[in-house]
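Chapter review: from sequence to fold.
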Amino acid sequence: MWREMGVERDEVVAEFGRYLRLERDLSPHTVRAYLGDVNSLLDHLGGRLEALDIGTLREWLAEQHAAGKARATLARRTACARTFTAYCHRRGWLENDPGLLLGSAKAGRELPAVLDQRQAEAVLNVASAGDPKELRDQAMLELLYATGVRVSELCALDVDDVDRERNVIKVLGKGRKERVVPFGAPALRALDRWCIHGRPRWVRAGSGPALFLGVRGGRIDAGTVRRVVHARLAQVEGAPDMGPHGLRHSAATHLLEGGADLRSVQELLGHASLNSTQIYTHVSIERLRAAYRQAHPRA
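The token string follows.
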């Protein structure tokens, strides 16, 4: 049917990608994942969009499950399929929207690995000789833990996004939603050392306003930040191996353990739904149970 309308597979995928980027404003990572899912679905259909119905959708997802795909992957592919069929129906490429009959798969909510507060102190309390890389890495780690920002948000920060008088940063989060996040004195001191003694030594003509730079003067990338976090955590005995998102988890958990309310943590993290923030209450409860089992004589 779709070829009769003068539409080829590559055009369908390309136009769906444009819709995700321009109208849904999804991140490049999510767009790549969704387009990979759509191509997998179309491969299952033999490239025949007209064969797409609730039965073939369920067959495709059943194959993914049989192949051992994680629950989170299945949940994403279900969400992608529903978005894709709705889009194709609106464009007139499908007579009906079979995605409406597809149940929502739920991803498993595994408790994230987090640092305890002693480990967090050890990660951040590292002496620096004043080398630009050391100053930059310390400033990034302090800011990640102090604010709980995502690694993409950290990389996108410009110098003017830091308000030193109010101790806040301006962050552009998911869905291009802007929020203001406070940070403390240790992060401010680390930022000042980087901006005064480190960043000027790496600035190049093409550096622009980027707050954090790579050794060649360009804006830092997420891969570099991940390597920095993994390397620093490897130096702390007993610390779990995790990336920047682990520092985000740790910051949220420690805020709740310190008495912060859930709504405030939701706003700081930039979660659209309180459901995303509530997992940190489970983390805190699990840690409380562990402490209870270890310390109470009748546990």
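Two observations follow directly from the output. The longest helix spans residues 274-295. The longest strand covers residues 168-172.
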